[in-house]
């Protein structure tokens, strides 16, 4: 796992100029596209406009009669927004991808909000989508842990998402570790020493260890913040157990997204800002990948990881034209 090292320009990024080597909360060091490939694009498409119970109309693709690329998985935090601030051009890019006939699914390791809240916030950024187009880790946990007694160290906002899980304070057969919040008080309340010691005690007596994700840190509007992967690692060290990751980069999470789009891995793309969870995870399942230089992107992390995305783009705003040029 690579930490949030400060952006630098290294030989791998030979086309970076001194003027371009600048950073912001949204976009890290500017790097020219270094990987070239020719991804296929959709040809004959069957589209429909779905209308939700609230009267919202969203263009959705139901069938593509082509052996070409037909499905795109989009990360949310760091790709569409950072700390609620939209990435410039993100809404227009999503609209363009839909108009071009691509099927979309929004896949996120976010653990601070319910799916409905996430959808509402994205629509407030002018990104049109239906709630059921978002795939979240709490819902993945609900499927994996249904019917089990679970001690859950998670933020209160996602408790209702754990439908079918019996939440207990002791005698658990599973411990679930959620994610951190930008609010230090909320994070401190969930991951207090008392709560972590309770989790350790349950694991020490036979409970299994699960986590929504194992991210070490994430990018916020005020810089990188420590995430709950540090607490997961601590419990693994103390117990000798290995946590089962339910979100990205786990196989079940990616496979569920592909199944929802009725897509084969080799005909699907993952667009993300995390070289480990998004890019490496998707590549392990045979998907094509594009890394964006927003969110937690760091050029050193890419070089040090040894992972080679199929493309590196300045932001999601460049994705529709990039795909169009290669059709």
What brief labels describe this structure?
Rossmann fold, 6-stranded parallel sheet, alpha/beta, 5-stranded parallel sheet, globular, 2 domains, 327 residues
Write the layout of secondary structure elements.
Elements: E1 44-51, E2 57-65, E3 71-74, E4 81-82, E5 85-86, H1 90-99, E6 103-108, H2 115-124, E7 134-136, H3 137-144, E8 149-153, E9 166-167, E10 174-177, H4 184-190, H5 193-204, E11 208-211, E12 217-220, E13 223-226, H6 229-239, E14 244-245, H7 251-260, E15 268-272, H8 275-284, E16 288-292, H9 299-305, E17 311-313, H10 319-325
Parallel strand pairs: 3-6, 3-15, 6-7, 8-9, 8-10, 10-11, 11-14, 15-16, 16-17
Antiparallel strand pairs: 1-2, 4-5, 12-13
Helical coverage, percent range: 25-40%
The CA-CA distance between the termini, in Å, is: 35 Å
Sheet with the most strands? Answer: 6 strands, parallel
Gyration radius (Cα, Å) is: 20 Å
Tell me the β content: 15-25%
Strand order of the largest sheet: 7-6-3-15-16-17
CATH fold call of the largest domain? Rossmann fold
Oligomer: single chain
Name the overall outline.
globular
Name the helix and strand elements from N-terminus to C-terminus, one letter apiece.
EEEEEHEHEHEEEHHEEEHEHEHEHEH
What is the CATH class designation of the largest domain? Answer: Alpha Beta
């Amino acid at each position: 796992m690579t930490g949030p090292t400060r952006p630098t320009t290294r030989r791998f990024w030979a086309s970076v100029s001194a003027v371009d080597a600048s950073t912001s909360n949204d976009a890290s060091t500017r790097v020219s596209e270094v990987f070239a490939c020719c991804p296929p694009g959709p040809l004959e498409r069957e589209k429909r406009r779905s209308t939700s119970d609230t009267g919202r109309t969203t263009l959705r693709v139901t069938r593509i009669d082509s052996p070409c690329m037909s499905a795109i998985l989009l990360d949310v935090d760091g790709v569409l927004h950072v700390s609620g601030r939209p990435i410039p051009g993100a809404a227009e890019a999503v609209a363009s991808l839909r108009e071009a006939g691509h099927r979309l699914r929004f896949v996120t390791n976010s653990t601070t909000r319910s799916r409905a809240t996430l959808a509402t916030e994205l629509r407030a950024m002018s990104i049109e989508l239906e709630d059921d187009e978002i795939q979240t880790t709490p819902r993945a946990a609900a499927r994996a842990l249904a019917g089990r007694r679970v001690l859950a160290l998670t933020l209160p906002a996602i408790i209702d998402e754990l439908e079918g899980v019996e939440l207990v304070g002791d005698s658990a057969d599973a411990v679930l570790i959620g994610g951190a919040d930008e609010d230090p008080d909320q994070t401190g309340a969930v991951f207090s020493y008392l709560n972590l010691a309770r989790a350790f005690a349950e694991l020490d007596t036979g409970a299994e260890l699960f986590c929504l994700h194992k991210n070490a840190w994430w990018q916020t509007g005020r810089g990188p913040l420590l995430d709950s992967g540090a607490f997961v690692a601590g419990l693994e060290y103390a117990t000798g157990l290995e946590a089962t990751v339910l979100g990205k980069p786990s196989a079940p999470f990616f496979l569920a997204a592909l199944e929802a789009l009725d897509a084969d891995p080799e005909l699907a793309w993952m667009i993300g800002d995390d070289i480990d969870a998004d890019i490496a995870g998707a590549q392990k399942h045979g998907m094509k990948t594009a890394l964006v230089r927003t969110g937690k992107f760091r050029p050193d992390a890419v070089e040090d990881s040894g992972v080679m995305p199929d493309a590196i783009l300045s932001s999601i705003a460049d994705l529709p034209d990039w795909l169009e040029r290669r059709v």
